[in-house]
Write a structure and sequence with these properties.
By secondary structure, the chain is of the alpha+beta class. It contains 13 helices and 15 strands. It folds into four domains: 156 residues, no CATH class; 72 residues, Orthogonal Bundle (Arc Repressor Mutant, subunit A); 77 residues, no CATH class; 68 residues, no CATH class. Strands 1, 5, 6, 7, 8, 9 and 10 form a seven-stranded antiparallel β-sheet that branches.
Length: 391
């Protein structure tokens, strides 16, 4: 599995604005649901017949006008007498929330990262008393000649979000939409979140954003974030093999072409290694934890150093396969053995090399090795030979 992470900066901006916030308004959702069910523009008569019962027609028209004002419906005529379900209305039905505009001073939490599609993560309305205190403090500081943070234009990234489709807060998942923005405000506190990319070969990539949003005297309690975010379009042109082979090539200096060839041959992620480049545990387990240094991608951005854990390794050549098999064959002898048992052990170890054709050592070759090695394993062969069990 691929696991990549990085820390991304979060900036805040405090400004007067109008934000439509998701609220539980079942009476208006019922009208949107009616438009969705009928799959055509609805009139005041539809509202009366299906929802309100015998009432003056003007009441049905006012209901439609209110739903148009809330963005749930789009008018289909100049008199607002008929309207159809809007894109925002469909989104409201999906989430069970109606967006209700609220004016005030808001704190907007912003991120600018190529893998985070929604640049506006969260909007927090600041309490009027708190805002008043901040303004009074600023006024007193000005009278004292203290240095102040000047009022400034909203950052371009925030202005560009004005009028976008509603999105879900990264903090509590509530729908919200920035609809109007004042021309000046003040920069707020700064902080950071962690962005994690995880990708298993047999499933789609996943992006997760976690941590706490920055806070200060106006927002004292940090707002936690732990949310999976939508994959950006860049992943439409990426596959697991491309990312994995690039990471391994960066870590092992193995050419990309060789890694791609092995991936296609084995049908899974494997790393070809020389026998002498492996540890004893790797010889036994055919697995390696690959340390990947900090990587930087043109479309994905930079990631911290990581590990590719428990990665399958294979011999880099037929020569490495032969040496590896001989080592395994010798080290598999842990008890008294006869020639037939030695041959069976060799077959067992040979099965671990599906992409090469090494040959296990013969019993006589292993006996000769035992005569020169002279250790406990040698004794398992020499004892049975001396007892005449090899004839």
């Amino acid at each position: 599995m691929i696991r990549l992470s990085r820390t991304i900066p979060i900036n805040c901006f405090d400004v007067e604005a109008t934000v439509a916030v998701g609220r539980q308004r079942p009476e208006f959702l019922a009208v949107a649901q009616l438009a969705a069910d009928l799959k055509r523009p609805i009139s005041s008569r539809d509202v009366l017949r299906e929802l309100l019962g015998p009432r003056p027609e003007v009441l049905g028209r006012r209901v439609i006008e209110r739903c148009i004002a809330l963005g749930l419906l789009n008018s289909t005529d100049s008199r607002n007498s008929e309207a159809e379900l809007s894109e925002a209305g469909a989104l409201a039905l999906e989430h069970g929330e109606v967006l209700v505009p609220e004016e005030g001073v808001w704190r907007f939490y912003l991120v600018d990262d190529p893998l985070v599609p929604n640049k506006l993560l969260h909007a927090e309305r600041l309490e009027s008393d708190s805002v008043k205190k901040e303004r009074d403090a600023a006024k007193n500081a000005r009278n004292r000649g203290d240095r102040l943070i000047r009022s400034e234009h909203p950052p371009e990234i925030l202005s560009s979000c004005c009028g976008d489709l509603p999105s879900k807060s990264a903090h509590h998942g509530q729908l919200f939409q920035l609809t109007e923005l004042a021309k000046s405000g003040t920069s707020g506190p700064k902080g950071s979140l962690r962005l994690d990319l995880t990708w298993d070969r047999d499933s789609d990539a996943m992006l997760n954003l976690s941590g706490t949003l920055p806070s200060d005297s106006q927002v004292r309690n940090p707002r936690s974030v732990d949310v999976n975010i939508e994959l950006p379009e860049v992943f439409d042109d990426l596959d697991y093999q491309t990312v994995w082979t690039n990471l391994v090539s960066l870590s092992t200096d193995t050419p990309l072409e060789e890694l791609d060839e092995w991936f296609s041959t084995a049908g899974e992620a494997v790393i070809p290694l020389a026998f002498d480049a492996m540890s004893e545990n790797e010889h036994k387990g055919f697995r390696r934890n690959v340390a990947v240094p900090r990587s930087k991608w043109k479309q994905l951005g930079a990631f911290d150093a990581t590990n590719l854990e428990n990665t399958l390794i294979v011999p880099a050549s037929d020569t490495d396969a032969q040496v590896w098999l001989e080592w395994l064959h010798w080290n598999s002898i842990n008890d008294y053995v006869t020639p037939h048992q030695i041959e069976e052990l060799g077959k067992d170890q040979l099965a671990r090399f599906p992409y090469h054709k090494p040959r296990p050592l013969s019993p006589s070759a292993l006996l000769a090795q035992a005569l020169t090695t002279r250790n406990e394993r040698s004794f398992f062969l020499l004892a049975t030979s001396d007892l005449g069990l090899w004839s």
